[in-house]
Amino acid sequence: MDRRPGRRLGAWCCALLLAGVGAVVGCRAADTDGVTPVPQLLAFLPWLLVPTGFALLCALLARWWPGLVCGVAVLGLLAWYQEPYGKVTEPDGPPLATLRVLTSNVEFGRGTPALVPWIRRLRPDVVFVEECEYACQAALEDDFGTGYPYRRAVRAAGSHGSLVLSRFPLRPTAGVRGTMGMPGAVADVRGHAVRLQLAHPMPPLPRQVDLWHRELGRLRAFAAAGTRTPTILAGDFNATQDHAAFRRILDTGLTDAARLAGHDRAASWPARTASVIGAQIDHVLLSPDFTATDARFLRVAGTDHRALVVDLTLHQRG
To answer: In 3-state terms, what secondary structure has residue 144?
Structure first.
């Protein structure tokens, strides 16, 4: 490094920034989520372009050429990982049914009053609601008792409650075991069985990364266990495509509906800053039997998540 104070400072700033960003990008390249704070930073991987750009500027001003080369390499990897993960295959069978699915985390039930008008307006066929505690469940069941006569719920307080509302008949299943409620069912979609599973694993908080991994692993096991039946796995995954544990779920053959509709990097959390900076942690994952013709992220007052509504077509397997 150059011994002049200004250049030395620029080189050190570049080195520190590239060390931090490089550790996160290295974990992404190694297909691991690492340890705190890597899982938390991986959720915002696209935004690491900002400190990487600043590091390149520092290296250029300091005329520190090794740093400039390293910065360009990190920048190239970040650009590479902006691409959606995995391959997409279109179903080759004829269409059997269309349906609309909505998922929303209402943050301890506080977003329930604002969610109700969206359900009335959009009329989704299946609604997945996370963090839907007792009052939330009572309100939704009272308002939509006739329109959605079929439901599955985990009745609990705070973030542990969850609810699935459906216009289609439901056959109960055990659901996926988790700290927060994750009910499941098999829906009769105009004569065709479709597995429905609500997803809400614990977030990767500093002392809960192992638990987060285990619960995402259980969702992966659910997805892998029923590949012969059309499947919809929807909810707040507390994970993005840049998390290895989430990619393991996609590796079972599921595809993100938002990606199919061209919104693979649209942020859903935190809602207040999602239009500027955020992460897509709310997903509707589909087996290859489905196509998605539209996906929209909706602002729901009272909650820190945007809701996601997708229009789907179920196809016969070729």
So the answer is: coil
